[in-house]
């Protein structure tokens, strides 16, 4: 596939250069330190400012007032009211894993996924060089969900699954906002990420939690925070498919969380899933709504 990159304007080139020059890790660590602090009225004021700037809807949350949260971390991973999201119950359906917007979705072209217009990246790069995994998902299907700062930051299961492997991949901490996704090559394959491989009724499914600038931590329900302290190399955990340590999650169950929004990438094997026709770039998503159906 020939790469045809959009030519940015002078101002856009300055913005891109600025992000390359940012001390990403220092800023992210500082944000993580700040997010832990319980400063009472100061914390509540800052949360209220954040709510106004990003137009956060707290009416869906279990705690509906800024003063209910002791820290930014508690605010970022706020749970929703039970009735706020309904899990699609149609037969053979899969549900969306997170609130956000479609960044890109569709068919994997042999081993390449579309990042944005003019940009694609390989399965091998995304999966940290795991050739066996990459081969399994060639010509499969993918969905990339962008979670903005205003969104609900917990991530759920599209279908029933048994966890088989988790891979932590250290990397860059570029912002994953749509502007940079359009202008930084291989963005999702360069950033820090946690790759979770599940056995499911429709074959293997991968759910990847991608880190970003100011995303202080990535956690899973079975492990807790995965990326702190940050490792100098790739780290792999294997999980059994039976016994007491088996990790089985049902469709719609929470599987992970970001402390500030980022990106989730789902990979499905060839001929396993038909994405819902409503899924198009920039379409707003709500966790639990229909992602697609098991392919006939």
The structure class reads: alpha+beta
The best one-word shape is globular
Radius of gyration, in angstroms, nearest whole number: 19 Å
Number of helices: 8
Mean pLDDT over the residues: 91
Helix share, percent: 10-25%
Sequence of secondary-structure elements: HHHHEEEEHHEEEHHEEEEEEEEEEE
Poorly predicted ranges: 1-5
Q: How much of the sequence is in beta strands? A: 25-35%
What characterizes the major β-sheet?
9 strands, antiparallel
**Count of domains:** 2
| Strands, total number | 18
N- to C-terminal distance: 29 Å
Structural description of this entry:
There is one protein chain. This protein has helices at residues 10-21, 24-36, 41-54, 72-76, 123-126, 131-137, 178-181, 187-190; strands at 93-95, 100-107, 112-116, 119-122, 141-146, 154-156, 161-169, 193-200, 203-210, 218-220, 224-225, 235-238, 248-249, 254-258, 263-268, 273-275, 284-285, 290-294. The protein is α+β, with helices and mostly antiparallel strands and 296 residues long. Strands 2, 5, 7, 8, 9, 12, 13, 15 and 17 form a 9-stranded antiparallel beta sheet that branches. It has a 4-stranded antiparallel beta sheet with strand order 6-14-10-11, with no helix packed on it. A hairpin with a 3-residue loop joins strand 10 and strand 11 (224-225). The protein starts with 9 loop residues before the first helix and ends with a strand. Mean pLDDT is 91; it is low at 1-5.
